[in-house]
Design goal:
The protein is of the alpha+beta class. The chain contains 8 helices and 5 strands, in the order αααααβααββββα. A hairpin with a 2-residue loop joins strand 4 and strand 5. The protein binds FE2/S2 (inorganic) cluster. FE2/S2 (inorganic) cluster (FES) binds next to helix 6.
């Protein structure tokens, strides 16, 4: 499968957030980390698909078509098998998020507690336009400066403290819309 077909399949597109992540380059360190992970799946290397994709996303911010080709080659499987995994799990990103990626819970408790109003306020403050987003192909919307991005997420397992969100790996609860400005201020000054 060619890269151009992959690009169509996984809805990859450029975002202003890319400047905060290194371009996908296969370094000796990346090869070594992947080989080590694959060594745990002798006899069933295809099961290393998820671990390898996590490595790629952690290093490069998202899963690019070139990364899909590389993972497929490492595991000696068809790229479409990797595409199936990337497109099945919402946790795998198909385009670069911002430097600070905000996942806002939209499940019942948080929706009733104001998560949609929180999302609206975050977009208003960061200049993010979500009009082109859709939950399947373009769930992530990035600010023009690339520093912030937003995405709706399903239950983040803190329903009693709704509405909640995560900024990268940091959890924030009780984030009503009027607290959005303070939340962004915690990150805005970080280089
Ligand atoms: S509904 Fe939002 S954390 Fe569960």
């Amino acid at each position: 499968m060619s890269v151009s077909i992959l690009q169509e399949t996984i809805a990859s597109h450029e975002t202003p957030g890319e400047k905060f992540y290194p371009p996908f380059v296969v370094s000796p360190e990346l090869e070594a980390e992947a080989d080590d992970r694959i060594s745990h799946y002798v006899g069933n290397v295809r099961s290393a698909t998820l671990p390898l994709l996590h490595i790629v996303q952690h290093r490069f911010g998202f899963i690019s078509p070139a990364a899909i080709d590389w993972v497929a080659a490492k595991l000696n499987i068809e790229p479409i098998k990797v595409v199936e995994v990337v497109t099945f799990y919402p946790g795998f990103r198909q385009s670069a998020p911002g430097k600070f990626h905000i996942r806002v819970c939209r499940t019942l408790s948080c929706a009733m507690g104001g998560s949609h109003e929180l999302m609206e306020r975050l977009c208003e403050l960061t200049g993010i336009d979500r009009s082109a987003s859709d939950p399947h192909h373009h769930p992530i919307s990035v600010s023009p400066c690339g520093k912030f991005s937003v995405e709706f997420a399903e239950c983040l397992a803190s329903c009693g403290t709704a509405p909640v969100c995560m900024v990268n790996d940091h959890f924030h609860d009780g984030v009503a819309a009027e607290k959005a400005e303070g939340l962004l201020a915690k990150y805005a000054d970080q280089a």
